[in-house]
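Sharing in case it's useful to others searching the archive later.

Someone asked me privately for the predicted structure of MFS transporter, so I'm posting the question and my answer publicly. Question first, with the sequence:
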Amino acid sequence: MLSALRNPTFRHLFAAQIVALVGTGLATVALGLLAWQLAGENAGAVLGTALAIKMVAYVTLAPVSAAIAERLPRRAFLVALDLIRAGVIAFLPFVDQVWQVYVLIFALQAASAGFTPAFQAVIPDVLKDEDDYTNALSLLRLAEDLEQLASPMLAAALLTVVSFPVLFLGTVVGFLASAALVVTARLPARAKAEPGHFWADVTKGIRIYTRTPRLRGLMVMEAAVAAAGAMVYVNTVVLVQARLGLGEEAVALAFAGFGAGSMLAAFLLPRILDRLEDRPVMIGGAALMVAGVALVPLVGSLAALIALWAVIGFGFSLTQTPIGRIINRSAREADRGSVFAAQFALSHACWLVTYPLAGWIGAGAGLSVAAISLAVIGAAGLAAVWHLWPANDQTILPHDHPELPPGHPHLAEHGELHAHAVVIDDLHRRWPKAA
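And my answer, the predicted structure tokens:
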């Protein structure tokens, strides 16, 4: 797994991701404390609204940001967004109204909606070898899981000696350090894209996504993952404190089980993907998540919950880590940023639906009904994946171009009936019927 770190550019980008993640984790803790300071017992409503604002920003702005990114130098775009994020966080300690929190959170997540897909699109350009890229994806997944464990502990340690607004300073430092590391990285030049209308570029990633069978399957799989994952993220605290009658430490242990399962999968995935194709691995991971959530009504102890959350976490990593590989083989280098942005927007649209569903059903009908309902949604999504993502998923496909005039350069290069690696582009606007 560590072989990807031999690449100096990836080392810089990986370090940038780590410091930004730690900063984000500190901000998460500080934001909760700020919400309590401003709203008291209504802090939960404030945080829930902030989470909804985050998802709306991701869903609506990621494709727009991708179109902007295509028109700007890669390094300058990433650094500018890191500086914007640092600037927004710097204002948070000084707010004294809830509406100010909402405005700043929207600005912060708008910048993240541009940064994350652009960052994801750089990695396969840096690591051309698929094994190195797979190792990099596992490392990045591992870093996210470790952040979820380490940042709360770091925040708790800092809060013994400083007040919570100082945590925001740590976030600012994290984003500034990320910007510095991106500046010092030797990023490959962006592939030249054809000049196009801005709004056509905004929708380009979605068009590619919806016209590529494996990406359509991935889109539905994200719905299944979000249905199962929402149960973990939304209802763990209720499961532990209401059903099991345990305290806050037990909540942390349950989430640690989820993180441990995800990290284990991240360690094992490079070897697994050497032996198996992405499709069965990802479907198997989603099935683990859905089955795990279906078993929630049977949980009667903390040990059982930790074990079950570890299984779901293992499945979560199996489904999420290989996504970059799927996108990498489904888009031209010039279109990759747009497709990563489409993935980012569509996946968060799923979470935007399942997060409130998990909370509303759990509060209104009980946790067991919520678990079964989300498992049914997830199972329906998995069934759709089998239909939308062909088991015989070939990259090189035989096809022809009856719409092209004789003598067209593409026909001159490949012949009338030909086969090559197919992606959706200006010459291949629909998936070949031969598939």
